[in-house]
């Protein structure tokens, strides 16, 4: 927002400036933002014809208006790579300077119901602090700061971002209505998607909404005098934003196969060497991928569990619905339903299900062993047939892992214990302060303070630091897989000192 001297660029002149509320690609006339408000404000350029504003909500993610990516006003926006070359300029309120970063946009994730998209950057921005999404909604009478790169009163395409104060008038489901707090402020074309910010008691800011539509009074080329605006709320989208911006990439290993779940929720698999070709599995919206022997399982976001047996190109079979988690081991398939029921089948893909337990939060299969963690944090394991008796192996468990004759638990306090042999063998403490545990054969892997450590041999073997700056770790046979903080999947094969190969980025 700017003083009657600036207007923010949005849909690059694609929208007529008519009286009343018009689709926003609006701009903010006012003073230049400083501090946290400046850091939160991003310039979005879509091809050569459209420009909008946005807010950095994660090192690799910016939130902006969906309308910025519509080929024509009101057209649908699909998830995927942008149809035109798109860049985001972060940390550069004065576009004539060399401060900050100009980064390509590689993925657009539209919200299904609101004028809002998340865009992923080709490289993370690590020296500009993302803005936190507000935990509470706007309140009538509350003053908020609006910012953007839109037009001003005198400039079609200003080089400097602007900020102004707007007051909340009405709070609606999904939107918030505002009015300018001073006569020389306005939201203009080019401000679309720009942040509406609340100042926190600590002096920082949090994101309440993004610009949607505005009267655009006082903006260059506008014939209106109104100063009202309607923004898209984001405070009630915290879970969706967190889910969408948290790296979802998962690497899974099993035998000669490697699978990844990519950031755009697509499952891919390769069979053979680390540099074999990828095969896409099903469509988008995968939640989990598992590989074991000749079987591949994909759990979709809608809760349908799919399994195929044989070649990577074999046909998937839907095996169960309403699933939260799926597991494979040999000729067994296990599902944990959203209602907390653990079911296992043995044999072919069409074998009948056996209900193994209820009130379950985690399910693990390994050979002829089945393990669960119940609602109370107790880990139970059975060995043998599907009707074998359960044995309580440990309380206070965050996660349970099994491989061969080893059982491992990660406790809620971050301690890792592993036992070898029978279900009632003694536990051996392995480490503390751990966030993730993996077992395979005689290898144990842990994730601790972003570092992946692996040991090989007896339980008392020495740890080897395998990688730093990683978010997940998995072991299978002589392979080790990690995902780094940039979302790249790396796998090594052979001994613990083998070199890493980037298998997905």
UniProtKB/TrEMBL annotation:
It comes from Cellulomonas cellasea DSM 20118. GO terms for molecular function: serine-type endopeptidase activity. PANTHER family: GH08193P-RELATED (PTHR24260:SF136), PTHR24260. This is Peptidase S1 domain-containing protein. The keyword Repeat does not apply. The lineage of its organism: Bacteria, Bacillati, Actinomycetota, Actinomycetes, Micrococcales. Residues 17-246 form the Peptidase S1 domain. Pfam families: Trypsin (PF00089). Residues 1-24 form the signal peptide. Keywords: Signal.
